[in-house]
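The passage that follows is intended for readers who have already worked through the single-chain material. We present the inputs for a multi-component assembly, then the predicted structure in tokenized form, and finally a short commentary. You are encouraged to pause after the input and sketch how you expect the pieces to fit together before reading on.
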Amino acid sequence: MPELPEVEIVRRGLEPVLAGQTFVRVELKRPDLRFPLPKGFARRLVGQRVMSLGRRAKYLLARLSGGDVLIMHLGMTGRFTVAHPLPTHRITSVADTNRSARGGGVRAGEFAYEAGADQKHDHVVFRMSNGAVITYNDPRRFGFMLLVPEPRLEAHPLFKGLGAEPLGNELTGAYLALRAAGRRSDIKTFLMDQRIVAGLGNIYVCEALFRAGLSPGRKASSLAGKGGTATERAGRLVHAIRAVLGDAIAAGGSTLRDYRRADGSLGEFQHSFSVYSRAGMPCLRRGCRGIVRRAIHGARSTFFCPVCQR
DNA sequence: CGCATCCCCTGCCTGC
DNA sequence: TGCAGGCAGGGGATGC
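Having made your guess, compare it with the prediction:
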């Protein structure tokens, strides 16, 4: 679920409680995530201080005082929840599911559940030196955590082949044109490939293609043609990618089912989808009479307006 | 290398 | 009410 905007929002939520703090205790309730947690995971974390919390593509990167980087990926359903030691600061993602505990209704600032009280699918719990309790919950367990020595991060198989960071300077029309040359896949699959643009997922690729007016079934190589039209298309696409990611971040990400910010609140960008999950509904572009269609590209659902997107 | 297919896992929704 | 089937924000492994 989490694509770049969601991961970035989680990063911003965790940073204030993680950065500068030391791991006091690490509990592994269920170490078999997408990959098994590394041997000695908890022991290697305890005592280390988090120097910074960054993001690359859809990965969260906690740089640790001991020289390792803690890599965290949320998969499809991963969620971090922060609970603070002070009742008035307690924040949780499950306030709406646990109201009966207090006789109905949880008011702002109240406890919604005890820190450490097991929720289903809680897998990892970090207890930090500031008292913060950070719980990783992931029903499908497609997420994972790794520890890699910082000098080896860039060469790590997960990172070595990553493409341009979409909000960075590397992503330009010229870059897309270069990478698209000779590709026979469709443009939707091309953009989903993390080796090309790192951090886009199904939602934002659909939305970006809509904003750029490009059909998802169009050949990726049509971004690389020699004429001015290909260059213009690639530039328009880069602009659309940046705009949709920026809008999504500003809205706190998109909540379909599982995604929550670290403070438990929902994202809001799902209310601004133009095409994603809107099959059969009218295109929202003013004056367009198209009906949003669903198609399959690279085994994933694609949503698009056949009138606007060519 | 590029590309397609299948798989990992749980939960939710739909239709019968 | 139950049950089968399809689908879901990600990405790795395999085979051609």
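Commentary: The helical segments of chain A are 4-18, 41-45, 157-160, 173-180, 187-192, 202-212, 228-250. Residues 215 and 309 of chain A are 4 Å apart (CA to CA). How closely did your sketch match?
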